[in-house]
Write a structure and sequence with these properties.
about 95% helix
Length: about 160
């Protein structure tokens, strides 16, 4: 042991310790550099992810506003459709009532014409029964004219003439 101690002096031991500490410091420094590079890479990735996240948030906000606009447009279209349905119904009811009034008016006029024709037929029948031959041709002509007038009015009502 003494021989070994003589060969290795205290200075050599200090120098060896210093070299070992320097090597360890160098290894720690390299490891720190490696960790620092990894940390920088993580920071860079984090910034990229933040940018992507911010873009996604922006897109989501735009999509949300577009969806809201579409909902509002849909509500407006539904309201317009309901208003149009109401207007169409109201116009349909008006048309129905107008047609009904025209038909009733036409029926009343036709009833009057039929009553007038019946009166004339009764007059003709009385004339025939009394055998008054002078009125017979006049009555027949009148009846033909009444029938022609009635036919003309019916054709005009139907829109044929």
């Amino acid at each position: 042991m003494n021989k070994l101690a003589e060969k290795i002096s205290a200075q050599d031991i200090i120098r060896a310790n210093s070299q070992a500490e320097a090597a360890e410091a160098q290894r720690i420094k390299q490891e720190a550099e490696h960790y620092k590079a990894q940390l920088e890479e993580i920071k860079h990735s984090s910034e990229e992810y933040k940018a992507i996240l911010e873009e996604m948030r922006k897109d989501a906000g735009e999509y949300k506003s577009q969806l809201q606009e579409m909902k509002e447009d849909s509500k407006a279209y539904r309201q317009k459709l309901e208003e149009n349905d109401t207007k169409i119904h109201d116009v349909g009811v008006q048309i129905y009532r107008n047609v009904q009034a025209v038909i009733e008016k036409s029926q009343d006029k036709n009833k009057e014409d039929i009553k007038d024709l019946q009166n004339r037929l009764e007059t003709l029948q009385v004339t025939v029964e009394t055998k008054n031959s002078a009125f017979l041709p006049l009555t027949i002509i009148t009846m033909i004219l009444v029938i022609a007038d009635l036919a003309f009015n019916i054709l005009r009502f139907l829109g044929i003439i």
